[in-house]
């Protein structure tokens, strides 16, 4: 009987907490809406944002962040970082949000998949991933900055990618999708390759065989996975565009965003491997029987130098993809 009372008490507390969070976010969204109306009165070029968009942009990332915290996909610092990234991308463009969602959920699922096998090859393996704020911002920092620039350029809302009408905004959309696809492709490759690949990885710079877990090592399955990881980001973005943009038929074709994202995932993963092979230290530690990223008396160097860690390599890769790839896509985009 006492256990039943405790259970009812916990359920009541949870229900009350959910109601408080909902009321607080609703009040916050109305406050921001009134604030945007006030600002638009003094600055006529600024358009007020609806309270429903404020509510969605606050509430949905909050719910997803709490879920990630409970499932140990994020630690507490990572949850705060993810909340900020999610809010900015959702406020700017719902297509940005759906692309971020595809990246986060697919990578979180893959991180848990094959955990027993990953423990055998990765000394830093954490169950569920448990990304901290550094990892969150190294993956989501570039998209967040691009989303802020997008809002400065055209304001919050969804627009089609059309270089003839919205050159700067279209460029920012491609950069943001490319950065997310790059991070997604690299994560898919690193999570799928070691589990499914039947062959030894080959170092991307010399093509010689290296132990599983070596920075810069690639496999055919990993490369295919990186393309699919980028592809899923592009599919999520494209579907949201189709559902929410009313004048899509008047703009340039939007389907190339799917192919673009897949290519960004593949190229970004290869770029990440190239940087990792040169700027991340990889050595085989005989005392633990695994590839490690530190030097010691029992470690035999495989490749790389201790210049960058994995987070920095991810950040540099996403920056390069965001800067370079949209220019190539602009020349090939069908009109």
Supply the key terms:
5 strands; globular; 335 residues; 68% helix; 2 domains
Nutshell version of this structure?
With 335 residues, the chain is mostly helical. The chain is built from ten helices and five strands; from the N terminus they run H-H-H-H-H-H-H-E-E-H-H-E-E-E-H. It is globular.
Q: Any chance you could write out the topology, listing elements then pairs?
A:
Blueprint: H1 2-42, H2 51-70, H3 76-92, H4 94-112, H5 115-121, H6 133-154, H7 167-196, E1 202-203, E2 217-218, H8 220-244, H9 256-279, E3 282-285, E4 290-292, E5 299-303, H10 310-332
Antiparallel strand pairs: 1-2, 3-4, 3-5
Helix pairs in contact: 1-2, 2-3, 3-4, 3-6, 4-7, 4-8, 6-7, 6-10, 7-8, 7-9, 7-10, 8-9, 9-10
Protein described:
Keywords: Membrane, Transmembrane, Transmembrane helix. It holds the Pfam family DUF92. This protein has 335 residues and is mainly alpha-helical. The chain folds into two domains: 1-48; 61-332, no CATH class. 68% of the residues lie in helices and 5% in strands. It is built from ten helices and five strands, in the order αααααααββααβββα. It has a three-stranded antiparallel beta sheet with strand order 4-3-5, with no helix packed on it. A two-stranded antiparallel sheet has the order 1-2. A hairpin with a 4-residue loop joins strand 3 and strand 4 (290-292). Helix 1 packs antiparallel against helix 2, helix 3 (76-92) runs antiparallel to helix 4 (94-112) and helix 4 packs parallel to helix 7. The N and C termini lie far apart (70 Å). The model has no long low-confidence stretch (mean pLDDT 82).
